[in-house]
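During the no-cost extension, the postdoctoral fellow (Dr. R.K.) reprocessed legacy sequence entries with the updated structure-token encoder. One reprocessed record is reproduced below for audit purposes.
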Amino acid sequence: MTRTPFDAFSKQLLEEFLSPFGTVELNREIAGESRFVDVWFSPSAPPDRSLGLLARIAATPCLIEPYRNAPGFSEIRSCLLKLFLVHSDQQRQARREDASLSEDRLPHLWILSPTASEMSLNSFGAIQSLDWLSGIYSFPAALRTSIVVIHQLPKTPDTLWLRILGRGKTQQQAVEEILALPEDDPRRFQTLNLLTAWRITMRVEDLDEDDRISFMAINQAYLQWERETVERGRQEGRQEGTQAGQRLVVENLLKARFGEVDAQLAALISTVLTFPAEEYTPLLLQLSREQLLERFRG
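Re-encoded structure tokens follow.
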């Protein structure tokens, strides 16, 4: 279900930003042969307008399929098949409940692609949408599908939360814009956490030129996140006292890495604190959960 580390990053980012405004289901299984939709969103409230283009996309029920590389014909057809199965299932359910289901209530499919060739767009009848920003192409109306060509989007704050899912220089600029946001911006912090988790999974030797550009930008975000997280822990630590403060620093690092400190991670903290800070800090920032449990257990 998860194709790549980018797949996990993109789904988590969309879930973080959209969950306050509706139901987000990741890897939603659909009827028929085992198939999964990457992100299925059903709004329950108007999304925050500060999300820009992402808020407009999420204003109505939608399926979102992010791609790290431009999808080929078969991948686009697979997305369309999943959409049609979803539509068919909802229409069957409406008939069972003797209810009407208008076309406008059927989910719209959004394919997020870093690039797209003119031949690919033409082959599916996708044309530039006059009602949307440049870079957004609509399939024939009955298909209820659009493709977002991320590198063609205007470089404005409204497109930031989609450009961060691009590649190469497009993603590099988006990372720089996120780093320039105020440090108390919650989305900045959320995104840096997700970029950090993604960076840790990257294998530099497997990256192509575009991904190396992305890696350099993500690495910059990682270093900034590391500095801010450690500094935040130190500031809180100075307020709490030296010993309690050191424990708080470790808890903050674990919380930033893994979202929460469960019983297993909490049990490691006393052992971690027996090591010098300059030794345990890089380990907490770099090792996976399993590696930390193995390294510091007992």
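The first strand starts at residue 22 and ends at 30. Residues 209-240 form the longest helix (32 residues). The remaining legacy entries will be reprocessed before the final report is submitted.
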